[in-house]
Structures are given as structure tokens and as C-alpha cells.
Amino acid sequence: MIVVAGVGLGWSFPGQSNVTDQVVRSQSGDVLQDTATDGAVSNVSTPL
Fold first, then answer.
1. Is residue 17 within 8 Å of residue 32, measured between CB atoms?
2. Are the CB atoms for 21 and 13 separated by under 8 Å?
């Protein structure tokens, strides 16, 4: 499987930690990994 794209979004709110979401997709568009981060806390999801 060839990884071709990593896409990320970020949000910032006054007085709060930043929130980000990064997705890594395969050449066919399938999600290989999704990482959501809120400040220092991250959650990594991968398909079954």
C-alpha cells in the first residue's frame, strides 16, 4: 500500500489548547490513520 497524502486541520480557541486532526490516506483514498489531538492528549485511530 502506498501512502500518498497526509491532511491536517487545526482549530484554536482563546484561552484553550489547540485542537488538531490529521488523516493519512492510501493511494485509493482509504484512511490508514487518524490522529486527533487536544493540547497534550492524542488519540490515534487505525482501521480494523
1. no
2. no
